[in-house]
Design goal:
GO biological process, one term: rRNA base methylation
Oligomer: single chain
CATH topology of the largest domain: Rossmann fold
Family: Belongs to the class I-like SAM-binding methyltransferase superfamily. RNA M5U methyltransferase family.
Structural class: alpha/beta
Number of helices: 9
Number of strands: 22
CATH architecture of the largest domain: 3-Layer(aba) Sandwich
Radius of gyration: 24 Å
Strand content: 25-35%
InterPro entries: MeTrfase_TrmA_AS, NA-bd_OB-fold, SAM-dependent_MTases_sf, TRAM_dom, U5_MeTrfase_fam
Keywords: Methyltransferase, S-adenosyl-L-methionine, Transferase
Protein name: 23S rRNA (Uracil-5-)-methyltransferase RumA
Shape: globular
Distance between the termini: 58 Å
């Protein structure tokens, strides 16, 4: 049977895609259906057809899966922030474990391994220490903030996201009150006019310090003292800044920070290591799970106090400083100069003297230092972006022949691709662990230990 757009079909969901969509068949024709979960029988409306598969919108759940759950957030279906709120947390963890397992087997070609642990959360809500809220206007001209609908830049109004901290709602209420009272316009993407683009809010889970950074399409915020007056009434407020971004692009943050009140940073801890976090810093968003992930990386590194470690894509030194507590020397590499400045400050803050940091692309710094200075490593730790490691970097890692490689990954497909190269040239896949950094979302972190074959 040939299906066309707007056809209504009944589908039994038998699998889920990497982005969390339910997968089922109507008369042998594969359909991807957002918000449907394994075990559901649903009525769906076909929205787009390809030769061998199509995409459909969930209309009704006819027979719910035993694993279907009522979402905590009333905006869950419209909002693009969560993909798995309709799936029980136990099954979310199973989905993520299967995703990593499948990628390592199908892309990496690994068969003889087992995922030794899946680190989930006891309380998978209110876990994010950072949130970025876009501002705009609704059809009635009222200022709104929230999150973008999936694959669009249409704002779904929501000041109370259940993944973020409770304090976010009060802060957003105060920002919008300031904007309304002082006729400060939100940014309009279509016209490039308006001032307030986003609010970036960070929260220190240990210190309870709060940072608010307003991203603005200009150099100044009118009547800024009125905004400061409102925000400083929030308990824990530590840093209020503006960030200038006048570019017409999807990139949220610009380079220029304007202090409005208090410090330019907040502090927080991962384990017993203290970090300074500025508006531009990359810092893991789930502090509870970060401790579990980094402790696993530290365990896999097998440090005795005699090792030289290279930490590639080190950010503000989060993993580096964790490792430095048990290594002889840790060297971190990161492309963002501001992050390296933060890393050096963080080392000083903790009295850590056996950590050094270098600015540059990991795939350029490491090969250059190896060829020109003959550097070596007992252990290499990599925590690359989603695209994984550059080929030249992998090649240099192989040339350096460290005893152990600890690979921390936010994308198990590029992880599997890179491990295939490393394990084809003298390394063995020894241990694998999965850490759920993003409950209700589809992404998952993986920590892997590779050991050099004798």
């Amino acid at each position: 049977m040939e299906f066309k757009k707007n056809d209504i079909v009944t589908v039994k969901i038998e699998d889920m895609s990497h982005d969390g969509s339910g997968i089922g068949k109507a008369d042998g024709y594969t359909l991807f259906i957002k918000d449907a979960v394994i075990g559901d029988e649903v009525e769906a409306k076909i929205m787009k057809t390809k030769k061998n598969y199509g995409f459909a919108r969930l209309m009704n759940v006819l027979v719910p899966s035993p694993d279907r759950t009522e979402p905590k957030c009333p905006k869950a279906r419209a909002c693009g922030g969560c993909q798995l709120q309709f799936l029980s947390y136990e099954k979310q963890l199973e989905f993520k474990k299967n995703k990593v397992d499948g990628n390592l087997r199908h892309i990496g070609g690994f068969q003889d391994f087992a995922i030794e642990k899946v680190m989930g959360m006891d309380e998978p809500w209110r876990y994010r220490n950072k949130a970025q809220f876009p501002f705009g206007k609704d059809k009635d001209g009222k200022i709104v903030t929230g999150f973008y609908a999936g694959r669009t830049h249409a704002i779904i109004p929501n000041r109370n996201c259940y993944l973020g901290v409770k304090e976010n709602e009060e802060i957003l209420n105060r920002i919008i009150a300031y904007m309304e009272e002082n006729h400060v316009e939100p940014y309009n993407e279509e016209t490039g006019k308006g001032l307030v683009r986003h609010a970036l809010i960070r929260y220190g889970f240990t210190t309870k310090e709060i940072m608010v950074c307003l991203i603005i399409n200009g150099e100044r915020l009118p009547k800024k003292e009125r905004l400061v007056e409102k925000l400083t009434q929030v308990q824990g407020m530590t840093s209020i800044t503006a960030n200038v971004n006048k570019k017409r692009s999807n990139v949220i943050l610009g380079d220029k920070i304007i202090p409005l009140w208090g410090q330019k940073y907040i502090t927080d801890y991962i384990g017993n290591v203290k970090y300074q976090i500025s508006p531009l810093s990359f810092y893991q968003v789930n502090p509870v799970q970060t401790v579990k992930l980094y402790e696993t990386a530290l365990e896999y590194a097998g440090l005795t106090g005699k090792e030289t470690v290279w930490d590639l894509y080190c950010g503000i030194g989060t993993i580096s400083l964790f490792l430095a507590q048990r290594a002889k020397q840790v060297n971190g590499v990161e492309i963002v100069p501001a992050a390296i400045e933060d890393a050096k400050k963080n080392a000083e803050l903790n009295g850590i003297e056996n950590a050094a940091f270098y600015v540059g692309k990991a795939e350029e710094v490491l090969p250059k230092k190896y060829k020109e200075e003959g550097i070596y490593a007992d252990v290499i730790v990599v925590d690359p972006p989603r695209k994984g490691c550059d080929e030249e970097l992998l090649s240099t890692m192989l040339d350096m022949k460290p005893e152990r490689i600890v690979y921390v990954s936010c994308d198990s497909s590029t992880l599997a691709r890179d491990l295939k190269i490393l394990c084809g040239e003298g390394y063995a896949l020894e241990r694998v662990a999965v850490c759920d950094m993003f409950p209700a979302g589809v992404h998952v972190e993986t920590a892997v230990l590779l050991v050099r074959k004798p």
